[in-house]
Amino acid sequence: MRAVITVIGKDMVGILAKVATACAEANANVIEVTQSVLQDYFAMVMLIDITEINMDLAGLTAALEKSVPGMKIHVMHEDIFNSMHRI
Amino acid sequence: MLNTSDILETITMIADEHLDIRTVTMGISLMDCFSEDAGRSCGKIYDKIAGRAERLVAVCDAAEKKYGIPIINKRISVTPIALAVGVSGGDPVLFARALERAADTVGVNFIGGFSALVQKGFAPGDERLIDSIPEALAATERVCASVNIGSTKAGINMDAVARMGKAIVCAAELTVDRNCIGAAKLVVFCNAPEDNPFMAGAFHGPGEPDCVINVGVSGPGAVRAAVAKAPKDAGLSEIAEIIKKTAFKITRMGQLVGAEASAALGVPFGIVDLSLAPTPAIGDSVAYILEEIGLAQAGGCGTTAALALLNDAVKKGGVMASSSVGGLSGAFIPVSEDAGMIAAAESGALTLEKLEAMTSVCSVGLDMVIVPGDTAPEVISALIADEAAIGMVNSKTTAVRLIPAIGKGVGDMLEFGGLLGRGPVMRISTVDPSVFVKRGGRIPAPIQSLKN
Fold first, then answer.
1. In chain B, which residue's Cα lies nearest the Cα of A36?
2. If exposure means fewest CB atoms within 10 Å of the residue's CB, which of B130, B201, B323, B431 is most exposed?
3. Which of B93, B83, B70, B72 is nearest to B116 (CA)?
4. Shortest CA gap A32–chain B (Å)
């Protein structure tokens, strides 16, 4: 089972590190990261394995929001993207 | 790996374009709850609903968090209560109160099925249920009522049509202190679908299984945004393609959530209703899609054609995305629940006559239309007959949900708040149709009913 984390907002030092730390604390394994900074705008899409995760996705969202306050964060099961964008 | 732009598209659709699951509706058969005593039947009905739907809200909340997609309403539809009244007798309002208690216990937003199917005539219980609708809706918050007065197969039961005109006025009068909300919870149908998850017209048809999960999707904002990205000189076939693709994505999401909820509840998955259901939120409007297609304002010439294109493209895109499509499946055009429709009605661009024409090419019918409080019941009945005739002849569902704004006249506003929104009182023809309505009897089924 995998989930997608997206983090969008104003760029600052340590976003990736903090998000990755929160994932590690939730026992979610990071599989892939795509990140870009356009002007001051930070956008990251992270694919994580949630098979062994020790909290639910709502809990992980709350933990991420606490670790990088001010950023827009979405954590969603990958099935929603697979169903919407693949036949 | 998932495509980053696909991921961001989904998130934009949800976060900025109001994409959501409008409703997860559990259909529950009450066939095994009828006894000869009304009190006993009410007890069994309460127990069955409270048992079957005990986990409905929790399961929907979990799916909402897992997929990050809002599920706006959790609802229940039940077997038409007229059948219960037919067996048990007693005051039908008792049944409405039992439904309300059950809805309150399980925490759903609405419960539909205070209904009667009388397209060909009245069976025991039907007339008493219809006459009790205004009181039942005034005495409850979450109970919704519907009556099917016609079908392509049976024709139109004009005796029922006459009664419904009175019932609508009475429902508004009894709830005048709550903005006539009673009438907003009452739908009169022709060709009512038995698996519709949307309120106020949801009921669990007698042909349905014991318990089932039906899902209604939404997403006018996402469709509008997709059409807005196309150049202004893009051909209409290109626009139709864009709408189809967006409808596919929206429906797939509904299918995913419905399948998840049905598996978690151990209840069979029924249908996805492919409807574009607007909300009063700015940007979540079907009228704005029509305007994006190229009309200066909804209601002008071209509206019916643009709506026909939209409605058809939504179905074509959605039908491949779901294993089972049902319910109303089309674009909704409720006036008070759609910011663009409200604006068009206020400016005078949208008239009741144009709305009636629009209903011949989309689902559902004259929905959330506010008329002057002094409109005669016969006029409302005649309007119901007109709308039912469109449905009957075209083998489609049509419905009427009119709100007579008691004490208000043309141009005044009626505010419901929430998803029901607000709207201006619209002008309705007052030419007297009472001789026609009082004739009663049945408008015979049209020749197209003979398909066998």
1. B4
2. B431
3. B83
4. 8
CA distance B186 to B201: 7
Which residues of A are less than 8 Å from B15 in CB distance?
72, 74
Q: Domain for residue B11, yes or no? A: no
Domains, in order of start, for chain A: 2-85 (3.30.70.260)
| Secondary structure of residue B7 in the 3-state scheme | helix
- Domain contains B6: no
Closest-CA residue to B386 (of B364, B417, B365) = B365
Q: Which residues of chain B neighbour A6 with C-beta distances below 8 Å?
A: 7-8, 11
> From CA B91, how far away is CA B435, in angstroms rounded?
32
**pTM as predicted:** 0.93
Chain A residues touching B4 at Cβ < 8 A: 34, 45
The tokens describing A82, both together, are: 């697979």
Helices and strands counted in chain B (H then E): 16, 13
d(CA B74, CA B108): 5
What CATH number is given to the structural domain containing B116? 3.20.70.20
Same domain flag for B169 and B285: no
CA distance A15 to B224: 34
- Does ipTM top 0.90? no
Q: Which residue of B has its CA nearest to A1?
A: B66
Q: How far is Cα B276 from Cα B25, in angstroms, rounded to an integer?
A: 16
**Chain B residues in contact with chain A using a Cβ-Cβ cutoff of 8 Å:** 1-4, 6-11, 15, 62, 65-69, 249, 252-253, 255-256, 320
